[in-house]
Design a protein that fits this description.
By secondary structure, this protein is of the alpha+beta class. It has helices at 2-19, 93-225, and strands at residues 24-28, 33-37, 46-51, 55-62, 65-74, 77-83, 87-88.
């Protein structure tokens, strides 16, 4: 019994929630003009006629009627009751068409500047592509020239080392030649001195021999004369 009472309470609560809901947006259905009344009954006074597509805010629902609030006040009227069956949560096609047409017209107005910007962007992209191609070509040429200069510099350094070694060898050879020349001069001078001394000795011996023989001849002549 207790479970049954709980189930009944839940069902009643759901029904009440179905009758009273949170505020939602709604529109008067297409091709209609409906009455806005002071209460949820056809006996209540009509306070306004709402055309198709009229937007409103649904505050609550009570049976076949809905309590609504108009976004724009009509002759001092802000709220009222309308039949729920004439309301739709979807935007009416006329309003959708008008909105789409406005967007279309707005896009048509903005399309030429966008096309012009696109054209300029494509032209700029083409120019940048040409600049990139030329820059890449120039960079390759510079890299090739750099490689050639690097190779030439390497060969130059190698040749300079060879030249330095050759210069050092030449200087050493010149130094050796100068030393040999000096030694040759010394040898020639020594040989000249030797020959001079030898000649002097021979001459001295010749003189001595001549003197000795002169003395002997003189003695010999003296002995003969006696």
């Amino acid at each position: 019994m207790k479970k049954l009472s709980i189930i009944v309470t839940i069902i009643l609560s759901l029904c009440m929630l179905g009758q009273i809901s949170w505020a939602t947006n709604a529109y008067v259905s297409d091709s209609f003009k409906i009455t806005l009344r002071t209460g949820p009954s056809s006996d209540n006074k009509i306070i306004a006629m709402l055309p198709s597509g009229e937007p409103m805010e649904v505050l609550e629902s009570n049976g076949d009627w809905s309590h609504v609030r108009l976004p724009e006040r009509r002759e001092g009227i802000n709220e009222g009751w309308v039949l729920s069956r004439y309301l739709s949560t979807s935007v009416p096609w006329e309003k959708q068409y008008k909105s789409l047409k406005e967007k279309h017209d707005s896009l048509r107005e903005t399309l030429p500047p966008v096309q012009q910007k696109l054209k300029e962007a494509l032209s700029r992209e083409k120019d940048l592509s040409i600049q990139l191609r030329d820059t890449t070509k120039a960079l390759k040429a510079i890299e090739k020239e750099y490689a050639s200069l690097k190779k030439g510099a390497s060969e130059y350094l190698a040749l300079r080392d060879i030249n330095d070694k050759a210069q050092s060898t030449l200087k050493q050879a010149q130094h050796d030649v100068m030393n040999l020349t000096e030694e040759n001069k010394v040898l020639k001078y020594s040989n000249a001195i030797k020959w001079f001394l030898a000649g002097s000795v021979v001459l001295l011996f010749g003189l001595l021999i001549g003197l000795a023989m002169g003395q002997r001849q003189k003695k010999y002549r003296s002995s003969i004369s006696l």
